[in-house]
Amino acid sequence: MSLTDKHSWLRSIKSHIVVFDAALSLIIFLILAVGIVTLYSAGIDFPGRVEDQLRNILVAFVIMWIAANVPPQTLMRFAVPIYTVGVALLIAVALFGIVKKGSRRWINFGVVIQPSEIMKIAMPLMLAWYFQKREGMITWRDYLVAAVLLALPVGLIIRQPDLGTGTLVLAAGFYVIFLAGLSWRVLLGLAVAAGASLPVLWSVLHDYQRQRVMMLIDPTSDPLGKGFHIIQSTIAVGSGGVFGKGWLKGTQAHLEFIPERTTDFIFAVFSEEFGLIGNSVLLFLYMLLIGRGMMIAVNAPTMFTRLLAGSITLIFFTYAFVNMGMVSGILPVVGVPLPFMSYGGTALVTLGLGAGILMSIQRHRKLIQT
C-alpha cells in the first residue's frame, strides 16, 4: 500500500469514527453520567440495574453512531416504508398482540417488540418527507392530510391503551406540522375545539385514565391507593430542599416510598438527594440539549432536515417536561421516562437514534448545501 493510499484509508476511517457532534455528545454524556449516579442510588436494592443500564447505553451509542453515518437523503427515502411498516405492525398488535397488565402493546416475531416505539421516529420522518415533497405549494389540504397521517397511528396506540406513548407520537407529529407553517389562528381554533370536546374525550377515557386525572386534582382523596404515587413523589421533590439530603441519603427512595424509582420516577430520587441546586444543573443540561438541537435545526439546509431536526429536539423537550411535570404533581402520571436518565433500553435506544439523526443532519449539512 502506497503512502497516498494509507493517508486516504486513514482519512476514511477518521471520517467514520469522528461523526459525533462534539457539543451534543458532551451534553448527552453529562446527562447520562448524572443518570448513572442517580440510578446507583435509586436501584441499590435492585442488583444489576447499573450494569444493565451501561449495556443499554452502549447499544444506544452504537445506534447513534449508525444513525449519524446515514445521510439525510437516505433517511428521506426510507420515510414512507418505515411509516408503513410501523402502522402495519400496530394493526397486527391490535389483531393478535400480546396482552400484559391489561394492555395489548407487544407482538411476538420470535423476539417480542413494541411497534409503538417505532412511530416516535417514523412519524416525524413521514411528515417531514411529505412537507418536503409539497414545499412551496403547501395549502390547508396538506395540513389535513398530515393530520390524517398522524391520527391513524396515534389512534391505534391509544387504543392499546398506551396514553404515554400516544402522547409522544402525537407531539412528534404535531411539531412537524407546526414547524411546517401552521397558522396561529388555526392553532387557536384547535385549542378552542379541544376545550369544547373535553366532555366527549372524558367519556371515552378508560377508568384508570380518569383516575389519573382526578388524582392530579386531589391526590389526597385516595392517599394509600391511586394518589400514593403523586403524594410520595412530591414529598421527595420538596424534602430535598436547596442542597438535597446527599447522595445515597434519600429516605423516600431507600425506604421504598417512591414508586418506579429507577424508571419513571427517577427525577424524584434525584431531587431528594441533590435538591434545588441539583435540579437547576439538570435543567440547565436539558436546556443545552434542546438549544443545541434547535441550532442544528435552524442551520439545516432543506425543509426535510429542518422539520425533522426541530421535531426530534422538541420531543426531547416533551420527554423531560412531561416526566418532571408528572413527578412534581402538575401533570397526570403517564409512562414517560426522563431522557437519558431513566432505566430502560427501549427508550434509550429511541433517544439515541434521535440524537444520531441530529448528528447526521449536522454532519452532512455542508455536503447537502454544495
Summarize the structure.
This protein has helices spanning 3-17, 22-42, 49-69, 72-96, 116-133, 140-158, 163-179, 184-196, 198-204, 207-217, 228-239, 251-254, 266-299, 303-328, 345-363, 365-369; strands spanning 98-100, 103-108, 112-113. It has 370 residues and is mainly α.
Please name the defining characteristics of this protein.
glycosyltransferase, 72% helix, RodA/MrdB, 3% strand, Cell_cycle_FtsW-rel_CS, globular, membrane, 3 strands, 370 residues, 3-stranded antiparallel β-sheet
Tell me about this structure.
- The structure is a single chain.
- Helix 4 packs across helix 5 and helix 4 crosses helix 6.
- The chain has a three-stranded antiparallel sheet with strand order 1-2-3, covered by helices on one side.
- The chain is mainly alpha-helical and 370 residues long.
- The two termini are 32 Å apart.
- It is 72% helix and 3% strand.
- The protein contains 16 helices and three strands.
- The chain is globular and about 60 Å long.
- It has a domain of 191 residues.
- It comes from Collimonas arenae.
Percent range of helical residues: over 70%
Arithmetic mean of pLDDT: 86
Structural class: mainly alpha
User: Strand-residue fraction?
Assistant: under 5%
Q: Uncertain segments of ≥5 residues (pLDDT<50)?
A: none
Write out the strand line-up for the largest beta sheet, numbering strands in chain order.
1-2-3
- Work out the number of β strands: 3
This entry's quaternary arrangement is single chain
Radius of gyration: 22 Å
Spatial gap, N to C terminus: 32 Å
- Distinct helical segment count: 16
Q: Major sheet: size, sense and barrel closure?
A: 3 strands, antiparallel
- Report the principal-axis shape: globular
